[in-house]
Amino acid sequence: MMHTGSVQRALRHTELGLTDERAVDMYKMMMLARRFDERGQLLQRAGKVNFHISGITQEPSQVAMGFAMDRERDWFLPYYRDYGFVLSIGMTVKDLMLSLYAKGEDPNSAGRQMPGHFGSKRLRIVTGSSPVTTQVPHAAGFALAAKMRKEPSVAIVTFGDGSSNQGDFHEGCNFAGVHQLPVIFVCENNQYAISMSLEKQTRGRICDRALGYGFPGVRVDGNDPLEVYRVFKEARERAVSGEGPTLIEIMTYRVTAHSTSDNDMAYRTKEEVDEQKAKDGMPVYKQYLVDAGLWSEEKEATLQAEIRATIDEANDYAEKAPFQPVEDAFRYVYAEENGEG
Amino acid sequence: MPVIEYIEAIRLAMKEEMERDNDVFVLGEDVGLKGGVFGTTKGLQQQFGELRALDAPLAESAIAGVAIGAAMAGMKPIAEMQYSDFMFPATNQIISEAAKIRYRSNNDWDCPVVIRAPIGGGVFGGLYHSQCPESVFFGTPGLKIVAPATAYDAKGLLKAAIRDPDPVIFFENKKCYRLISDEVPEEDYVVPIGKSKVMREGTDLTVIGYSMPLHFAMQAAEELSKEHGIEAHILDLRTIQPLDREGILEAAAKTGKVLIVHEDNKTGGVGAEVGTIIAEELLYELDAPIRRLCAPDVPAMPINPPGEKHYLLNKEKLKKAMLELARY
């Protein structure tokens, strides 16, 4: 894009209000999420952990939306593939690794829940479960609380395309629409609900459903993190200024199987997956940073070494860490009388 | 001490808690200007505004789910289910979410929500305005469940539920709304969750139950006393989860003959658990087999008057069962 009367080329991230440093940090975060995710798969295949569920190729959009939100004020209700998202809002690889190994120090659940079930009150990440889409009405509830307390907080909730079929999706959206609540509904449309391709789930565009709730619905290319950032900034602005919810459909693709328990070659072809892998947003974004003079192969090599060290260290720590003692396994069904609850 | 109706006790509990704490609010279908289909929330929107007596779209999972979200955000929501018969769409939110939030987050998050739902028949409500769904939720760890029989307990238990740090289902009996009135103090009080109450002292047999059928037991007990000199000991569970084991065992030991009553159907009901607690701990102190008098195991009561009457418990049914047990 050209500034009138100038030969200076304005960079996309600058126009969006992102500093060079933040633009680079976004790339680093995507790569961290990617490498953690890959390690998770390896650890499961090696028999070190029981289960891993992947968000590979969804990281560019996950990181971009994390960067567009306010970590001090907003409420985050992620779904199970959101490693890029939760890392962007303060969770660490060590936290994720502790969860993967189901260890006692895991801040998400002390190793009670499967990995990918995020939660940390300190980070304003709301505890989630496995029955999908229950978090959508919760997000409306967080937004309602913000409205009642006149707090400038926005609730952002993510879910998959499969979830858009659940009643809780409709009920949560409709409630938030009626009461003009500060919430952003995010469908990470990766084209599959386990083996069910999108055409087996819905005939329409998921973003178009917003029309029925009386608020804007936007579809955005998940491989273009800067465009994702722009769309989320705009939705957040609408929310805090009292203009109500936005539904954002991020178009992406699940290149891995549903989880380590799934064999995706039973329902789709390698050709289809390879074709989508070629559209990965991360190399494109890296090239953008290189072209902008913000990134280089030397920096890339340093980053990869740093990430490897971080993940190795987290892995060693988590592997050696103790499980929650069984004496504590049945605690916290209710608040404890000593006030700890 | 003023005598007030059961429904007024519920309304006053909400009103007083909303006055006491700005985080308390009520949401549900028709709870705003109309004040609820039964009038339970009458005047609350006028006093507290549209947000704190919030008319919600007709969607029970959202009513529960939004309340759960707001509770996690630090509010103290009271979610009203118009009839307990209609709360099943919210069951996933109540059982998978509210009940498990503290446990699954290792005490990081909590969910201080109250779900109010009217139970019970005898109002010509037919299959879907009369049910008692306690057993659907009973046995779900993480939930507390209360079911008051009197205006005093309705007010005190609802206040306790609102102040409780964990999710509480408040099953109010719609037949009790205007039929039951009793003395309720004007000053603030709570009835502790998890504590039963002896409604009547007696030596010949023990009746254990909750909600509306206890009133039939009380009427029957008076007649049995006058006509047969039989004195029934009557225990109101008040809270059905967690059950007051001590109170149950004490009441059972008092007479050695136990009749358990509830309007929910017999199989898998609260009575099965109460009976088992007694059998586990007190079997050799019993002088008769434990008996249950409950609704029949049919899906729900019919609307036609003879059918409804046949389904429901009443004083005569209680009296017959109590007399039989006393003479065992």
UniProtKB/TrEMBL annotation, chain B:
Pfam families assigned: Transket_pyr (PF02779), Transketolase_C (PF02780)
Cofactor: thiamine diphosphate
CDD domains listed in its UniProt record: TPP_PYR_E1-PDHc-beta_like
InterPro entries (UniProt xref): THDP-binding (IPR029061), Transketo_C/PFOR_II (IPR009014), Transketolase-like_Pyr-bd (IPR005475), Transketolase_C (IPR033248)
TM spans (from-to): none
Alphabetic keyword roster: Oxidoreductase, Thiamine pyrophosphate
Keyword check for Oxidoreductase: yes
The keyword Cell wall biogenesis/degradation is assigned to this record: no
GO molecular function, one term: oxidoreductase activity
SUPFAM superfamilies registered for this protein in UniProt: Thiamin diphosphate-binding fold (THDP-binding), TK C-terminal domain-like
Residue ranges occupied by any Transketolase-like pyrimidine-binding domain in the UniProt entry: 4-179
PANTHER family cross-referenced by the UniProt entry: PYRUVATE DEHYDROGENASE E1 COMPONENT BETA SUBUNIT, PYRUVATE DEHYDROGENASE E1 COMPONENT SUBUNIT BETA
Protein name: 2-oxoisovalerate dehydrogenase E1 component beta subunit
Organism encoding this protein: Cohnella phaseoli
